[in-house]
Amino acid sequence: MKVLLVGGTGLISTGIVEHLLGRGAQITLFNRQRRESRLPPELPVIVGDRNLPAEFEQRLERERFDVVIDMICFSPAQAEATVRAFGGRTQQLIFCSTVCTYGVQIPPQVLIDETFPQAPISQYGRDKVACEQIFLGAQRRGEFHTTIIRPSNTYGPGGTLIDQMEFDSTVWDRVEHGLPVLCANDGIGLWQSTHRSDLGKLFAHACGNPNTYGEAFNGTRDHVFTWRDYYREAAQALGTRAELVLVPAGWVVAQNPERFRFLDEITRYHGAYSSAKAKQAVPEFRCEVGFVDGARETILDMKKRGVWRRHRDDADYSALVQRALDLGFEKLTA
Fold first, then answer.
1. Which of 85, 79, 98, 71 is nearest to 11 (CA)?
2. What is the pTM of this model?
3. Euclidean distance between the first and final Cα of the chain, in Å?
4. Residue 256, exposed/middle/buried by CB under 10 A (0-12, 13-18, 19+)?
5. What is the mean pLDDT of the chain?
6. Which residues contact 210 (CB under 8 A, 6 or more apart)?
7. pLDDT value at position 40?
8. Closest listed residue to residue 267, CA positions, set 113, 95, 121
9. Which run of H or of E encompasses 151?
10. Confidence band of 32 (pLDDT split at 50, 70, 90)
11. Which residues touch 106 (CB under 8 Å, ≥6 apart)?
12. For labelling, which of 38, 74, 80, 266 has a CA lying 20 to 30 Å from the CA of 124?
């Protein structure tokens, strides 16, 4: 099976390649070769920029692949370029979408499945919905089979460990040093985090799988925990405990709307999804990495790569925590 990864250097791609190699696939990457890659150096790379549609299509016009996995499609224009590049020249197009397409409402059964109405509140989510529709339209025209996978938070070596407030945080250094950190809305919001290797199984084994053609799948670990659980388990990975200051999400956002946009658009709401449909269609998709072990692995990798952020370099966050304590917000040990 010949597989092309458009992108191929990111966190999820590393997990996909791991499992595609296990299947004996012939893998080619398409990217600008500007990011450090953790992938085997012998993998062939087609060098190009997918943000330049004419170049993107020209680089690929003579190529044929059984499966194309588009990991870096974020706009309708990029989706249309993908259809022009591969329509009629590949059997299957797998699109990496996002659970952000569902928006922020929750169903009576709490867990969101693939039948839940898509009503995103962010431009990122709206653009991903538009891309999904373009790829499904290409399937209806017979240009290729479309498979859509919607991950939630994915983590692992090569990436960072988010906290509830932001992606690249000094929070974990504070936790390691026994300093309090902020946690929004009493820390009882629901969340899921999936290790890159586990998610990679879904993409890799969806390749060439007729059960996935024309379908959309959530790609998440089954375990749903609260943010209190999340901080507690991340602290266990550091060999300590997390001291949380419970604050309203709106209060945090009001202090610095630009910095805390991630909290404002995503993590102040429940993020709990069912991946039962994916497990039925792709039996190989089973999540085996526990969060404590995965967080420990990720933290060690962050320190090794020199991307571990020190709390002493983030005076603004320290001042914000002190402000919350001075206002009398509740503090507890997770």
1. 71
2. 0.94
3. 47
4. middle
5. 95
6. 145
7. 78
8. 121
9. strand 145-151
10. confident
11. 112, 270, 272
12. 38
Distance (Å, whole) CA 18 – CA 235: 28
d(CA 177, CA 140): 56
Q: Are 97 and 216 in contact (CB under 8 A)?
A: yes
User: With pLDDT > 90 as the criterion, what percentage of the chain qualifies?
Assistant: 90
The DSSP annotation for 213-282 comes to: TTEEEEE--S--EEHHHHHHHHHHHTTS--EEEEE-HHHHHHH-TTTTHHIIIIITS---B--HHHHHH-
Report the length, in residues, of the chain: 334
pLDDT in tens, 37-60: 677 778 999 999 999 989 899 989
Alpha-carbon span 178 to 210, nearest angstrom: 51
CA distance 234 to 241: 9
* Joined tokens for residue 10: 């990111």
Residue 82 to residue 101: CA distance in whole angstroms:
20
What structural domains does the chain harbor? 2-154+194-219 (3.40.50.720), 159-192+222-271+290-333 (3.90.25)
| Mean pLDDT computed over 186-209 | 97
Spacing of C-alpha 82 from chain mean position = 21
Give the C-alpha separation, 302 to 305, whole Å.
5
- Between vectors from CA 219 to CA 216 and to CA 224, what angle results, nearest 5°? 130
- For residue 243, which amino acid is it? E
